[in-house]
Design goal:
about 250 residues; mainly alpha; 2 domains
Length: about 250
């Protein structure tokens, strides 16, 4: 019963602080400091905090790790929808009313038209509850991943406790680590080769392709590359004056 009033009081403080931050970040931007915007933000932020508390409390009572990722994703979606609703209701039927695509642009820190990045009054007023909720859910996800990583270690040490040959079990552990490290090395090497191929494609797209005019033993030398590059660099002049022999002569 106490969760609702606490969430509403906290949303009042956070909303006013967000308006101050938004005005400081973009002093020339219009600041939505109206009574309806304040009430809309307080109501939807209070709902966000309240629903988050309910979901996390329900997860704690179940005492299972399998439900945590689903709860985090559901709470993140709910917080995003309520943030969009807060800005929409606060500005609807006014001269500054925003459409759904414009609100989604503000949600991802873009300007209303989506042309550039912007963290003005709209952004901070809209994210008063969304950003704290995301930070808390991220911390919760990191803790969940840490516990997930410890599950194999816990199983291994439980097996080693009653194993008659602990040295053999230790050798098995190192063999598993070798396989994991080899897989990571292979993945990193594959990614590096893919990046090199993309770089070559981008370079060929910028400079174009041409045939080297040098033939014979020197065709693969550095001089052949320089000669071919010089011939390619003269091509724009040939196209400008229409001369087949080059525009520099």
């Amino acid at each position: 019963m106490v969760q609702g009033p606490i969430a509403i009081c906290a949303s009042f403080v956070v909303t006013l602080a967000a308006m101050l931050i938004g005005h400081t970040a973009e002093p020339t931007a219009w600041e939505p400091k109206t009574t309806r915007m304040l009430l809309s933000n307080v109501i939807f932020d209070g709902l966000t905090f309240w629903i988050t508390m309910l979901l996390l409390g329900w997860t704690a009572t179940k005492n299972t790790m399998r439900r945590i990722p689903g709860v985090i994703l559901a709470d993140l979606v709910i917080a995003g929808v309520l943030a969009c609703a807060s800005l929409y209701v606060g500005l609807v039927a006014t001269a500054e009313a925003l459409s759904l695509p414009e609100i989604l642009n503000v949600l991802i820190a873009r300007d209303v038209q989506g042309n550039h990045w912007e963290v003005g009054p709209y952004f901070w007023t809209m994210h008063t509850a969304f950003l704290p909720t995301c930070a808390y859910l991220l911390l919760m996800l990191v803790a969940w991943l840490g516990k997930l990583i410890l599950i194999p270690a816990d199983w291994f040490f439980r097996q080693a406790k009653g194993n008659p040959n602990p040295l053999k079990l230790t050798a098995l552990l190192f063999a598993i680590l070798v396989v994991v490290c080899a897989a990571l090395h292979f993945a990193a090497d594959t990614k590096h080769e893919h990046a090199k191929e993309r770089e070559l494609v981008q370079v060929s797209g910028i400079f174009g392709t041409y045939d080297s005019p040098v033939t014979g033993p020197a065709a693969g030398s550095v001089g052949a590359w320089e000669t071919g590059q010089a011939r390619w660099s003269l091509q724009p002049f040939q196209e400008q004056d229409g001369s087949p022999e080059g525009g520099m002569g």
